[in-house]
User: Fold Peroxisomal bifunctional enzyme from Astatotilapia calliptera.
Amino acid sequence: MAQYTRVSGSVGLITLQSPPVNALSAAVRQGIVDLMQRALSEPEVKSVVICGQNGIFCGGADIKEFGGQMSGPPLIPMIHAIEAASKPVVAAIEGIALGGGLELALGCHYRIAHSKARVGLPEVTLGLLPGAGGSQRLPRLIGVPAALDLITTGRHVTAAEALKFGLVDQITDHNTVNVAVKFAQRVADQPLDARRISTYPCLCPSDVAVLFEEVMQRVRRTARGAIAPIACVQAVRAAATLPYNQGMERERELMATLFTSGQARALQYFFFAQRAVGRWSMPSGARWDTSKPRPVHKAAVIGLGTMGRGITVALAQAGFSVVAVETQEKQLMEAKQAISGMLERGAKRRGVAPALDKINYGRNIQSVADVDLVIEAVFEDMALKKKVFQQLSAVCKPSTFLCSNTSGLDIDQLACQTRNPELVVGMHFFAPAHVMKLLEVVYGPKSSPLAVATAMQLGKKIGKVSVAVGNCRGFVGNRMLKPYLEQALFLLEEGATPEFVDQVLEEFGFAMGVFRMSDLSGLDVGWKVRMADGLAMPDPTTGQPTRLRQGRRYSPLGDLLCEQGRFGQKTGRGWYQYDKPGSQVAKPDPWLHSFLDEYRARHALVAHRIDHQEVLERCLYSMINEGFRILEDGIAAGPEDIDVIYVFGYSWPRHHGGPMFYAATVGLNKVLERLEHYYQAHPDVPSLQPCHLLRKLVASGSPPIQKWREVIKKVRSQL
Ligand SMILES: C/C=C(\C)C(=O)SCCNC(=O)CCNC(=O)[C@H](O)C(C)(C)COP(=O)(O)OP(=O)(O)OC[C@H]1O[C@@H](n2cnc3c(N)ncnc32)[C@H](O)[C@@H]1OP(=O)(O)O
Assistant:
């Protein structure tokens, strides 16, 4: 909706009213069309100001409307009518002008922004392009290079940057609407021809063809299969090379392709999924809106290895006082130096002072006595972690939250070491912890809603997307990774090469295939865990069959590589070879190919031709199957939680929506049928056996993903 008022006698003020972000819903568009007509027809009105209520100009098209039938006046003619108006129209931009909101402002003749406002064309992040004339007007206003940057990245820019680009005409620290009204009065009689952006020529640099080629190459390289960034470049190229009307036609064609693509649907689903995870719930019924967090002023980090350092940086950068504890003097000195470097580099990038004074370093665990929350980040060893939790429980205030950055150990066992197990939760960060957006907040059977709410809020404050998950081996992310890694190894046993498996996964859109990723993280990490679990078997005298563990198929390939000292990038050898230890350029290794041949011969495995489809289906469907088990077990509240974890923590390509959304796109019956097929071929691989929930969903007619929670509830209640 929109409201009309006459101010200062001669200015028609149109206020968009659609909380929370004044999105351009059908009702809002109708309001703008009607009220523009009214303002133009009233003779006393000499100029018009468009603003949004509650200090927010406009968050763009109403994304919720994308899935349904289009109703109400379309955006493009509405914006054209504003631009063609006979009276000056001024956009008063407060808060945000994003997507269609900025396109609306570009249709106005003038733009006044508050100094704290942000503007941008983020449509690319929703699998779209600025399809209401934005791709044609923006380059005409600010030039091709700047428009390409904004449109292909979707980044928001500050009012100051927008002023520099010429995207807004004025910025103010005062009441933007008042300033815009005064401005509108001043320009009331001025001619408008020079203010209609669609009539501007598109000024291009002399080497524009080279520029487009370079940008297209960069976009193709980084898009990982996403089509919207490429369409964005094509649309801007149309602005640079065609008259406005033809450019608009090209924008429309490209938009139609994107709009109906599965990628746009996936990205729009993901937009809401990211927000849905904030509305967490626990099986006990505790929820985000009924559980109040307790404020955290001072936190501590125990253990300053790679993870502890990153967590310390994340906390300090967000303004928390941190006590950083490392018991070994040498490690403490090294960590201090590394943390200071990280803070200084980060601060330089962001143009702020480094938060060095936020951190107090110490070797003694006693120094955490007065903190509100501790994050333990010592080595992934249960006995060690238990000891640390016992010490923390003795040293800290009774009200201190004790959190573990374990990547998969039992939170309950740690909680049992403390006086107040209800204040214990997992806070599973992802490396590098000051960069990666994901945080799994893990609740054990004893964790209180207060502890979960506090960890979730702390995550938000340090800029993480936090997902509340239940306690089980590997939680959500690493639990699902297990069958994926396992299938990749089985594929090698059966005839594939690491290069081929990685190529298929990278073509699908992963930043790195499974083997390149293992080389980067270090093969020894998983090896140590498998040894602790009694799986890896360096000693052939144990009598266990090499390729069988606990009645299931097991691949010792990773263990065999570790026994050779091949730990990945850090040793210069792993699934690939590298020029030197630490190098990142992976090259196929003939040694590894011979090793695989010998291994297959030794175990009488006959290599068969493995194609693209088999790699993708076995790796992804086994992981998805585990995702369904996780939902069935109540470890994740809904498919959105899993998808957000996979996109932010495991580089799952966002334009496929996440593994569970992908399963819905492929068709649950197809996933089920292919799992059945592979399980029949590999009955000793339980992760390929389709789980009950998947069968139940298929039997219920494969409802849309938004309806899965209803089926999940039924399945859980029957268990
Ligand atoms: C063609 C396509 C055209 C013309 C387009 O315009 S596409 C849309 C382009 N606009 C965007 O991409 C903006 C999307 N929104 C955001 O980036 C952010 O929400 C925000 C910066 C506007 C506000 O961020 P924040 O303050 O952190 O709040 P939330 O993100 O939590 O959002 C609050 C609630 O508003 C809902 N929302 C936000 N934008 C839209 C929108 N464009 N359409 C519909 N709903 C929107 C969001 O889902 C939150 O709702 P709840 O989840 O809390 O119910």
In short: The chain has 28 helices and 19 strands. The mean pLDDT is 96. Residues 298-473 form a domain with the Rossmann fold fold (CATH 3.40.50.720). Residues 20-21, 23, 59-64, 75, 96, 98-100, 122-123, 126, 128, 131-132, 275 surround LH2STWOF (CB under 6 Å).
